[in-house]
Amino acid sequence: MTKTSLGSKPFYVHIATLFILLFSVLGGALIMLQFQQGMQQGLEHERQNFQQYREQLALAIKLNQRPARMSLSLLRSGQLAAMTSLESRLGYLPQLAEVLANSASYGAIYAGYENGDFFLVRKLTERAKERLEQAPPTSYLLVQSLSQGRGEFLYFNQRLRLLERRPMPDYQFDPRDRGWYKEARWGTGIIVTHPYLFFTTKEPGMTLAVESDDRRAVIGLDAGVEGLSSLIGELPLPSHCQLVLFDEFGTLLATDPKRLPSFEQLSRLPMLSALKHPILAKLQQEMASRPTLLHAPTELTLAAKDGSDWLVNLSSLDEGSPFYLALLVPADVLTAPARHDALRNLAWALAGLLLLLPVIWLVARRTAAPLLALTQEAERIQHFDFGESERPDSAIREIDDLARAMSSMRLTLGNFMSMGLALAAEHRFDSLLSRILHETVAAAQAEGGCLYLAQDKQMKAVQAIWQRQPLDCERVHWQESLLGGLYHSERLSLPLNTEQWSHYLADWGPFPGPRQLLAEPLYNHRQELIGCLLLILPDCAPRELASRISLIEALAGMSASAIENQRLLEEQKQLLEAFIELIAGAIDAKSPYTGGHCQRVPELTRMLTEAACAQQQGPFGDFTLSDEEWEAIHIASWLHDCGKVTTPEFVVDKATKLETIYDRIHEIRTRFEVLKRDAHIEALAARQPASEQQAALEAVAPTWQMLDQEFAFVAECNLGGEWMAPEKLARLDVIASRTWLRTLDDRLGVSPEELRRHPGEAAPLPCREPLLADKPQHLVPRPDHDNLTDHNPWGFKVKVPTHLYNRGEHYNLAIGRGTLTEEERYKINDHIIQTIRMLERLPFPRHLRKVPEIAGGHHERMDGKGYPRQLLGEQMSIPARIMAIADIFEALTASDRPYKSGKTVSQSLTIMRHMVQEQHLDPALFDLFVTSGVWRDYALRFLAPEQLDKVDEEELRGSKAAHKAG
Question: What residues contact residue 664 under an 8 Å CB cut-off, 6+ apart?
Answer without folding.
Answer: none
